[in-house]
Design brief:
Elements (H helix, E strand, L loop, with lengths): L9 H18 L3 E2 L8 E9 L5 H11 L4 E4 L1 H6 L1 H9 L3 E4 L12 H16 L4 E4 L8 H9 L3 E3 L3 E2 L11 H8 L5 E5 L8 H14 L3 E3 L1 H6 L22
Parallel strand pairs: 1-6, 2-3, 2-8, 2-9, 3-4, 4-5, 5-6, 7-8
Helix pairs in contact: 2-8, 5-6, 7-8
Length: about 250
């Protein structure tokens, strides 16, 4: 017998249920979106690496600007390219856990999610400490969040996101993001495939713009370390994307 009521489309029932489970932990203040701070800094975070197609150029750009970033790495790709993980950590950047492969985290059964999260953690821990977790495709479920927290990982999403160029940005993205970035912003960009090679140019142009305003790109941990103890932006919803800034 079907567990769905007569005449009910399972997909229409499952979607609100999944959304409810995803939004719950956010409303509970367990997910970091941005950081209240008076320091002229924002966190630059980059998902889906490492990749020979994008990571070396990104690191070169960051070095030229004297900027630091948090790289949310896929365990599968980190295992394939340990030399890139070593370079990321060796050049002063921070490692974050983005689970094993690029797929929607909320679709994974809890045991499979736990296995992937821990396998990624073991792979990255050989290169440096890991304290942050970002789920694939944006949202965690309550169960997944509990697993990450039990392993000492804090979930972080972002307050400004590049949408164009499959998340790597286009020629217009630096101008659009510059309007959105302010003190304490957590910016999300994507690398990891040849189609995202533009991410290095996006970061280069963006850092040129933000530096003119006196804003420096740094890691999540450095940004959080400087925030006021009395404040926490965990309860803020996800902020705007580069598309919200207009043409």
């Amino acid at each position: 017998m079907s567990r769905w009521p007569t005449g009910c489309d399972a997909r229409r029932v499952a979607l609100p249920t999944a959304l409810s489970r995803a939004i719950g932990p956010v409303l509970g203040g367990r997910v970091l979106f941005g950081v209240p701070t008076r320091a002229p800094r924002f966190a630059l975070t980059i998902d889906d690496g490492p990749s020979p197609a994008t990571t070396p150029a990104l690191l070169d750009v960051l070095a030229r600007h004297g900027a630091r970033a948090t790289f949310f790495l896929l365990g599968e790709e980190a295992a394939r390219h340990p030399e890139l993980v070593a370079r990321i950590a060796g050049e002063g950047h921070e490692l974050g856990n983005h689970t094993w492969r690029d797929e929607p985290t909320w679709t994974l059964p809890v045991p499979e999610f736990r296995e992937q999260l821990r396998a990624t953690q073991r792979t990255l821990a050989a290169h440096g400490p890991v304290r942050w977790f970002r789920p694939g495709s944006g949202w965690p479920t309550t169960e997944h969040l509990a697993v990450a927290e039990a392993d000492g990982l804090r979930c972080v999403l972002g307050s400004a996101v590049a949408i164009g160029g499959a998340g790597a940005g286009t020629a217009r993205t630096p101008t659009r993001l510059d309007v959105l970035i302010r003190r304490g912003t957590v910016l999300v960009l994507h690398e990891g495939t040849p189609a995202r090679r533009a991410v290095a140019a996006t970061v280069d142009a963006l850092l040129t713009r933000t530096s003119r305003r006196g804003l420096a790109a740094t890691t999540l941990s450095e940004l959080v370390a400087g925030r006021p103890d009395r404040s926490d932006s965990s309860k803020r919803p996800r902020g705007p994307t580069d598309e919200d800034a207009g043409p």
